[in-house]
Design goal:
CATH superfamily of the largest domain: 2-enoyl-CoA Hydratase, Chain A, domain 1
Distance between the termini: 46 Å
Bound molecules: (S)-3-Hydroxyhexanoyl-CoA
Strand order of the largest sheet: 13-12-11-14-15-16-17-18
CATH class of the largest domain: Alpha Beta
Radius of gyration: 29 Å
Helix content: 40-55%
Shape: globular
CATH topology of the largest domain: 2-enoyl-CoA Hydratase, Chain A, domain 1
Strand content: 5-15%
Number of domains: 3
Structural class: alpha/beta
């Protein structure tokens, strides 16, 4: 059976004495094959295997083949039941997302048509599921009359993460099978269920402990159902819907529950409406309502943006010149140097991924403080109910604090996370070079220093690279992987693979001052501070950027990060590093007043008892107004639109420079940096995608106008000008 190694089908006959459990199978050979489907008879069951690698996405070709195989099986009198299963790694990842923009997804047979064909079949159809059954793949299973899944399978409706609603009956059939509350949770979060959870909820009829006996179980269930007569159709089931009709308020309660998390997103609310429709509309009208909602969402900018992010994440794993079969070095032990906020957070990332990690510090005091912070973090997660006490303890046990530098010698991956000082880092790397084993990867968490200079103090610069985490490191998902000029492909591939193990989104960047994320951040915060000098207040600037979709504006963010951090970085930066650009002095003045942000309950705002809710502070307003006066600025009201453009367009402009310098390969990498490093709203796709959607000619013209008024800053990047002139987008741009 070429290509289907994981389904071993025994060549035996069915045991007539124990028909329900002991199925013995006679393989009668392939009946038909197409490029994307195999159809064969096993006894009297038609077995259809999807074969559209890598993920069995329902492209038009697969849909046509499936329709043909189903029709053949339905019309064949020798076939009493049908099993659909997936070849390769999984059942199916759902509709082929690449067909959405062109509208090929609407060409017949559409997924809803296929699922209707399955559900209305006069003989039972069983889904035998392994790997993943996502989106349309899951919806196909819902239309089947029985479902068997192998342990380890994930089943879900992640459409919401693509800015759409399930469009092939998922919102109508799922609540009929598992009830409204569970269906809402699943559809609106987009999070898949494990096979075990799905079994408990009644979505899966039978579980198998491995993939080896999956098809056999599917065949067995199909034959049992055939003996029972007319298949029971999900569309006709009402018991679980009836329960929810007594509690119609649950929908508004659910809307309130997700309000914070779903702020700005359209699809979660569209999903809720569709599930609500399942309750009150007959099935045939419910699916029509769902279909219309799906089409509306599919065409929306939000969905385009979220699909862009889906592909951006996968693109980022492909690095020019790095072959996909590059050797990845084994990482079973890690070490982190420095147990401050960053070092402690990084150590937690390793422990959370089940990797043993040593943390070192220069004094017992610093080590104890760092470990206390780690324990406090785990404790907080346990009290929020996000982690069991046992799991927290198991993770903590993987972190080994020590003052003995030599112990890092047995680590496979070492991350230096000490204070941002070149001499200190060079000293540490020279010591690492002498104690680390010959295959160890030596990484620095520097946020701005030159990796090549650091690598140069070692005898193995090819094993050195940057891994720049974002604070809090155990929470923020971005990892900038900084490739030095001599970093070897194996070391880069190892860091990329590690980023996935740590559940980070790794973005490879080249060496430049501050790399991609912080480099784009500077013009953003710089403009925010200038706007405040000119007449805005932090509250207004923060509100405008919050309304764009950021979790907080630049001033609230600065309070969270700590004004002392920015101050110290500014003290250590050479004028050449800041290109002699002027920056506002207000942040420094606040620092000198002892206002370090949330940690001192005062920064750009003051903070009450909880230490987290920002409140306007007259002292800050006074400092701002006095600074404007000192600079001879006549404060004027600044429109929200100007605030938005002055903060965002320079950030995008810097992104254009980063692109033309080849620091990243593609603009979508910069989108990921902002989504996962600073919480840029996913439904806008990232700042570069957002700029593309606004039109680069508009962004360029606006930048040029600003530059005419402020010639010493805001100069449009040549690439921005070029793309605007050519009517192109950042998304279309590729490095020459
Ligand atoms: C839907 O179903 C709508 C319906 O309700 C209604 C329709 C009418 N389409 O992620 P991987 C590509 S919407 C096209 O690295 P993994 C992916 O880009 C769909 N391509 O694999 C990558 O390509 P490349 C709802 C897809 O094993 C390659 O396959 N479904 C699709 O790490 C390997 O992907 C979803 O949202 C697709 N649907 O993870 C699920 N899926 O190699 C989307 C993947 O060129 N998929 N590709 O970079 C996933 O979440 C993951 O792929 C999955 C496997 C978890 C399944």
């Amino acid at each position: 059976m070429p290509g289907f190694a994981h389904h071993a089908i025994p060549n035996v006959t069915r045991d007539p004495l124990n028909a329900s459990t002991a199925l013995v199978v006679l393989y009668t050979g392939p009946v038909s094959m197409s490029e994307s489907i195999r159809y064969e008879h096993i006894n009297s069951v038609g077995l259809i295997t999807l074969d559209n690698p890598p993920v069995n996405a329902f492209s038009l070709a697969l849909r046509v083949s499936l329709r043909d195989a189903l029709t053949q099986a339905i019309e064949d009198d020798g076939v009493t039941a049908i099993v659909i299963t997936g070849g390769g790694r999984m059942f199916s990842a759902g509709a082929d997302i690449t067909e959405f923009d062109s509208g090929v997804s609407n060409q017949s047979p559409t997924l809803p048509e296929l699922i209707e064909l399955v559900e209305n079949a006069p003989k039972p159809v069983v889904a035998a599921i392994h790997g993943n059954a996502m989106g349309g793949g899951c919806e196909l299973c819902l239309g089947c009359h029985g479902r068997v899944a192998a342990s380890g399978t994930k089943i879900g409706l992640p459409e919401v993460t693509l800015g759409i609603v399930p469009g092939a009956g998922g919102t109508q059939r799922m609540p009929r099978l598992i009830g409204v509350p569970a269906a809402l949770n699943m559809i609106v979060s987009g999070k898949p269920l494990t096979a075990e959870q799905a079994h408990k909820l009644g979505l899966i009829d039978e579980l198998t402990d491995s993939e080896t006996n999956l098809v056999e179980s599917g065949l067995s269930l199909a034959l049992q159902l055939a003996e029972l007569g007319d298949p029971v159709r999900t569309r006709d089931r009402d018991e679980r819907l009836a329960e929810a009709r007594d509690e119609p308020e649950l929908f508004d309660q659910f809307r309130r529950k997700i309000a914070h998390r779903a702020r700005g997103f359209e699809a979660p609310y569209a999903c809720i409406e569709c599930v609500e429709a399942a309750l009150w509309k007959p099935f045939s009208e419910g699916v029509l309502f769902e279909r219309e909602t799906f089409q509306r969402c599919r065409k929306s900018l939000q969905s385009k943006a979220q699909r862009h992010v889906f592909f951006a994440e996968r693109q980022a794993r492909k690095v020019q010149g790095l072959a996909s079969d590059t050797t990845v070095l084994q990482v079973t032990r890690a070490a982190v140097l420095g147990c401050g906020t960053m070092g402690g957070g990084i150590a937690m990332c390793f422990a959370n991924a089940g990797i043993r990690v040593t943390v070192t510090e220069s004094t017992q005091d610093a080590l104890d403080r760092g470990m206390d912070m780690i324990k406090k973090n785990y404790h907080a997660t346990v009290s929020k109910g996000r982690l069991s006490r046992e799991d927290a303890e198991a993770r903590l046990a993987l972190i080994e604090p020590t003052l003995d530098f030599e112990t890092v010698g047995n680590a496979d991956f070492v991350i230096e996370a000490v204070f941002e000082n070149m001499d200190l880092k060079k000293d540490i790397f020279a010591r690492l070079d002498s104690v680390c084993h010959s295959n160890a990867v030596l990484a620095t968490n520097t946020s701005s220093l030159d990796i090549n200079d650091i690598a140069a103090v070692t005898s193995r610069p090819e094993q050195v690279l940057g891994t720049h985490f974002f604070s809090p490191a155990n929470v923020m998902r971005l990892l900038e992987i900084v490739r030095g000029s001599q970093t070897s492909p194996e070391v880069l591939a190892t860091a990329m693979s590690l980023s996935q193990r740590l559940q980070k989104v790794g973005v490879v960047v080249g060496v430049c001052d501050s790399f991609a994320a912080n480099r784009m951040l500077y013009p953003y915060t710089r403009q925010a501070e200038f706007l405040v000098e000119e007449g805005a207040l932090p509250e207004q600037v923060d509100r405008v950027l919050y309304d764009l979709g950021f979790p907080m504006g630049p001033f609230a963010m600065s309070d969270l990060a700590g004004l002392d951090v920015g101050y110290k970085i500014r003290q250590h930066r050479e004028p050449s590093q800041t290109k002699n650009l002027r920056h506002s002095t207000i942040a420094d003045q606040l620092y000198e007043l002892g206002r370090y942000g949330q940690k001192t309950r005062a920064g750009w705002y003051q903070y009450g008892e909880d230490g987290r809710t920002p409140v306007s502070d007259p002292e800050v307003t006074q400092t701002i107004i006095a600074t404007s006066e000192k600079l001879g600025i006549d404060r004027t009201e600044i429109p929200d639109e100007e605030i938005l453009q002055r903060c965002m367009y320079p950030l995008i402009n810097e992104g254009a420079r980063i692109l033309e310098e080849g620091i990243v390969e593609r603009s979508s990498d910069l989108d990921l940096v902002w989504l996962y490093g600073y919480g840029f709203p996913r439904y806008r796709g990232g700042p570069m995608f957002w700029a593309d959607s606004l039109g680069l000619a508009h962004v360029y013209e606006t930048m040029k106008n600003f530059h005419d008024i402020h010639p010493d800053w805001l100069e449009p990047a040549p690439l921005l000008e070029q793309l605007a002139r050519e009517g192109k987008t950042f998304g279309e741009w590729r490095a020459p």
